[in-house]
Amino acid sequence: MDAGFTAEQDEIRRTLRELLHKRCGPEELRAAVDTPAGHDPALWTALAEQLGLPGLALPEAYGGIGCSATELALAAEETGRVLAPSPLLATAVLVAPLVLALGTDAQRADLLPRIASGALTAALAAPAAGLALTGDNRGDWAGGGRAGGVQARRTGTGWTLYGEVGPVPDGHSARLLLVAAHTGGFARSRTLLFLVAGDADGVVRTRHTALDATRPLGHLQLRDVEAELLGADEGADVPAALARTGDGAAAVLACEAVGAADRVLERTVEYVKQREQFGRAIGSFQAVKHRLADVYVQVQAARSAAYYAAWATAQGSGGAARSASLEGWWRETGGRVGGLALAQGLEALRSSAGEAIQLHGGIGFTWEHDVQLYFKRAAGDELLFGPVHRLRAHAADAASLFTATEVPV
Length: 409
Fold this sequence. Notes:
single chain; 409 residues; Butyryl-CoA Dehydrogenase, subunit A, domain 2; Butyryl-CoA Dehydrogenase, subunit A, domain 3; 49% helix; AcylCo_DH-like_C; Acyl-CoA dehydrogenase family protein; oxidoreductase; AcylCoA_DH/oxidase_NM_dom_sf
């Protein structure tokens, strides 16, 4: 692994940071989250047209830029610094890889160029358990029996979906829904993925009141909605594809959390140099220095883990040139690199934001100050993708770190 950035990667980070500095300040952020969509469409258009962000990790054959998951993760680090609300996670990180991996040639040719251009936003309508970050995803989490969720039924040559799912990142506003549904009953129980237009008949969408307003969430009700099967093979291993996508998404989310943690730490350091107590800046007190030094070390450790996870994800998705097969690489690594990095990133963000609230004193917890938004991002992502201890426990179980062994008598 080469820990240095390429000139192209540095340019992506620099250009994106400049654009977000101009277009996504505190006032723009608060205005965007109060809109029905929860993000600024003009900013999304700028990110797509000027930087090609939605297609950053898509092949050039489908209108993408042809970079890897590493560049997408580095871009997410910059969006995390300003908590930029956008459909990037749902569209480019969760849905696009699944369409690329499982879709037919016709589906890829139809959907991926529009995703890469930013014209088509998408959302993955599946419970968080489907991403296999905190447990095995081969159960009945998608629906069926007493599990609720969404169920699929054949109707002639097509499919209809019935059920509900939520919370779904950007599910209330995305133009395309990729829905995980259960079918086959008890005899041939399986989970499949279906394409549904966001404005299709029978789709009822509402926006959740979320703890983290910068990560807009939706709730979906599907009432006998006509759907198109993703891919041509009903026997596709959808849980494995979702687990691979989940680990890649966790690597991107880890970089996003690191960006947010680094920025809130910077703001805290700036503030303690200005705030005075007993006639001197509180940043000069040894206790304050020690607390911020501990946070700094934690953020840097999380950054190293996030960068490694992004690199490992790119290695796994590099095709035959980098590994014998994606399936083989994922089995060899246990598919838990991203989950571990996400756990460390969220822990660093929570610590950094918590210290920021404490050291900002009376204004730190107020609605008017931006520090509370970073703390809510950490708490909201743990609610969505799994608490830190469960992310680590699942990785440990997958690696058999604590397997019981026989003790000789």
